Amino acid sequence: MTRIAVLIKQVPASDNVKMDEKTGTMIRSATDAELNPLDMYAVEEAIRLKEKLENAHISVISMGPPQAIEAIKEAISMGCDDGYLVSDRKFAGADTLSTAYTLSAAIRKLEGFDLIFCGERATDGETGQVGPSVATQLDMPVLTYVGKIDKFKNGVIRVHRSVEGGKEVVEASIPALISVIKEINEPRIPNLSGKIKSKKTLVPILDLSKIDAPSDKIGLSGSPTRVVKIFYPKLSRTGKVIKAKNAETAANELEKFMKSKGIL
Ligand SMILES: Cc1cc2nc3c(=O)[nH]c(=O)nc-3n(C[C@H](O)[C@H](O)[C@H](O)COP(=O)(O)OP(=O)(O)OC[C@H]3O[C@@H](n4cnc5c(N)ncnc54)[C@H](O)[C@@H]3O)c2cc1C
Fold this sequence. Notes:
CATH topology of the largest domain: Rossmann fold
Strand content: 15-25%
Shape: globular
Helix content: 25-40%
Bound molecules: flavin-adenine dinucleotide
Oligomer: single chain
Number of domains: 2
Number of helices: 6
CATH architecture of the largest domain: 3-Layer(aba) Sandwich
Number of strands: 11
Radius of gyration: 22 Å
CATH superfamily of the largest domain: HUPs
């Protein structure tokens, strides 16, 4: 059987994210949450691969507060088999290194995954570091910016990576971690039977007692980065609106304006 894991994150549903300027952390309770939109492509690709294989199983794994179970259930309603929530108050305040460490410890505990899928980046933190960092901690190859899975046979996966100016076709032996880009597929909408299945599925919680992770590697104490200061940028620029009869006059006006500012 091929065992597939998909890493997903629950993120604020709104662009209007509120930050606590004193602590430098996000006020998560102030916003609705959703499954990271870019992770839906990872979920979809795992399901498509499972549909092609004779025998495969997909587990969704997320680290976050208890409400992240909703995001796991959404992935299950799309077609994943089960899910695990990595959650403990001691994991709070984790930066990307400590998040990846904790996720890797959970993956090691669940053992035996052949492929790990994740999204290109989370729409809140947006570092894109967690996937590659998990692969590094688990000592497995990482294939990033994957826009197509070309072949998966005899323990080797071949993918198309989107790189500047073109595509790169690369192969890796499994186990491997793959982060996908949104061009890879069109995520499906969960059907009724998927929704019923996800409602019935119990999502086990992996807390600190269930994974092997020393306290100096998790949460705030395992995080070498610190939010030193947080502030809202103040926009002081004043724009100039160029009104012209046609594109040529507008271009000439713009050129004049840019020359007057020393830009050209
Ligand atoms: C100093 C510091 C303190 C922080 N404190 C807090 C805090 O108190 N509370 C808090 O909620 N956040 C905190 N964060 C943010 C936290 O580190 C990030 O939410 C987390 O590491 C994910 O990083 P990212 O959003 O950049 O994900 P990316 O690296 O952009 O995500 C890439 C992919 O990795 C996977 N992934 C990412 N995160 C997860 C996850 N949690 N579970 C499963 N898969 C995942 C997804 O597939 C995602 O598409 C803190 C960050 C820093 C730097």
